[in-house]
């Protein structure tokens, strides 16, 4: 009985955390005197200072090819310096006739981690060439120093992409997905590519672009809508490891963008969990087209508090995103895998946080 009561208590705490995080959009709005969140580590002095990578260390910076064929996953990797020439000879790659996806990992991330491979597999099954950056050796320094390396890494990727265009890659067939620090690395790579060729990637998708150290930086030093013909952003932890700022042509604030509901009711999905959840949403959005549906918001503040259900304009998260409908979108999800709500999520009464808290106290008399 004691264990059961403890579980009930934990469930109540989780719901209160969720409700205070989002509010119900009708009864609560923050008072001016309590201020607004500055976000985790808004400034990091020195992150824009120069950085370099030695030729020996550069050998650890690799491009991983990921392809699904005949039900099996085939992978090869090359040092980024020699990768352009190697890829031309690689039978797993067809630069001239297929779309190409470049996946840029984030802080403490690797191309060999399961969720990175899941995204790569989803794209490969849809006919893309899939390339992944292996930057684990560089993005495992203490965080502000890892941030300092992002421009070096992004410029090197931009140089790599420029050489690929000389080998037959068409930029109109190039899409880049970056998570966390990888989103800003993608931005740097695109800026370098544009400066060198006058051309931009077709699309960049930022999965909860990193917020710490980036909040006060100018557009030239982080991912921005001008970096590609189409830029879409998935916000899942905007005051923690992510950014509240609108960065793309289409920005999805998932469940308000602050925190995500936990899969296990007694365990809340807090900062790291909510941040990484962006990758899982994106993976499932590719696997389940047009199932993750967002509704247009008038402001980021409205998205935080789910005050968008009075709008009729919607958009899809995933490969079907309609870029002719730019703006801010509130994207509702379910709390359990595979997370999508479809059209049911567009009903205000189904908003995940308040619907759960409402059901817990549905009885008029609570007797103990």
Structure description:
It contains nine helices and eleven strands. With 368 residues, it is of the alpha/beta class. An eleven-stranded mixed β-sheet has the order 2-1-4-3-5-6-7-8-11-9-10, sandwiched between helices. Strand 3, helix 4 (114-125) and strand 4 form a beta-alpha-beta unit. Helix 1 crosses helix 9 and helix 4 (114-125) runs parallel beside helix 7 (271-287). The longest helix is centred in the middle third of the chain and has 24 residues, at 143-166. Residues 1-25 form the signal peptide. It is found in: Secreted. This is Lipase domain-containing protein. Belongs to the AB hydrolase superfamily. Lipase family.
List keywords for this structure.
eleven-stranded mixed sheet, single chain, 368 residues
Helix content: 25-40%
- Number of DSSP strands? 11
Provide the succession of SSEs: HHEEHEHEHEHEEEHEHEEH
| Terminal residue distance | 13 Å
Instruction: Provide the low-confidence segments as ranges.
Output: 1-25
Quote the beta fraction.
15-25%
- What Rg is obtained from the alpha carbons, in whole angstroms? 21 Å
Q: What topology, given as strand order, has the largest sheet?
A: 2-1-4-3-5-6-7-8-11-9-10
Mean pLDDT: 91
Q: What is the molecular shape?
A: globular
Biggest β-sheet, characterized?
A: 11 strands, mixed
Secondary structure category: alpha/beta
Tally of separate helices: 9
């Amino acid at each position: 009985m004691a264990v059961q009561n403890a579980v009930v208590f934990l469930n109540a705490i989780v719901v209160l955390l969720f409700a205070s995080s989002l509010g119900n959009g009708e009864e609560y709005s923050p008072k001016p005197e309590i201020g607004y969140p500055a976000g985790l580590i808004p400034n990091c002095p020195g992150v824009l200072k120069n950085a370099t990578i030695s030729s020996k260390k550069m050998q650890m910076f690799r491009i991983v090819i990921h392809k699904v064929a005949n039900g099996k996953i085939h992978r090869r990797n090359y040092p980024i310096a020699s990768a352009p020439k190697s890829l031309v000879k690689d039978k797993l790659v067809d630069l001239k006739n297929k779309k190409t996806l470049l996946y840029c990992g984030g802080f403490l991330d690797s191309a060999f981690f399961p969720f990175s491979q899941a995204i790569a597999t989803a794209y490969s099954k849809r006919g893309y060439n899939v390339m992944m950056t292996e930057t684990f050796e560089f993005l495992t320094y203490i965080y502000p120093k890892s941030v300092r390396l992002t421009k070096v890494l992004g410029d090197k990727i931009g140089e790599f992409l420029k050489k690929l265009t000389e080998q037959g890659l068409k930029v109109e067939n190039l899409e880049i997905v970056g998570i966390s620090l990888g989103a800003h690395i993608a931005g740097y790579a695109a800026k370098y590519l544009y400066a060198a060729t006058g051309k931009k990637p077709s699309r960049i998708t930022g999965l909860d672009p990193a917020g710490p150290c980036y909040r006060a930086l100018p557009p030239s030093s982080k991912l921005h809508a001008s970096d590609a013909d189409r830029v879409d952003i998935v916000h899942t932890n905007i005051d923690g490891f992510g950014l509240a700022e609108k960065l793309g042509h289409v920005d999805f604030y998932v469940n308000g963008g602050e925190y995500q509901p936990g899969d296990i009711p007694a365990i809340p999905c807090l900062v790291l969990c909510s941040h990484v959840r962006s990758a899982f949403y994106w993976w499932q959005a590719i696997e389940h087209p047009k199932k993750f549906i967002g509704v247009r918001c008038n402001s980021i503040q409205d998205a935080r508090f789910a005050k968008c259900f009075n709008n009729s304009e919607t958009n899809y998260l995933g490969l079907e995103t309609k870029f002719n409908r730019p703006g801010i979108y509130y994207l509702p999800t379910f709390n359990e895998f595979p997370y999508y709500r479809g059209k049911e999520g567009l009903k205000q009464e189904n908003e995940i946080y308040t619907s759960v808290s409402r059901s817990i106290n549905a009885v008029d008399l609570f007797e103990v």
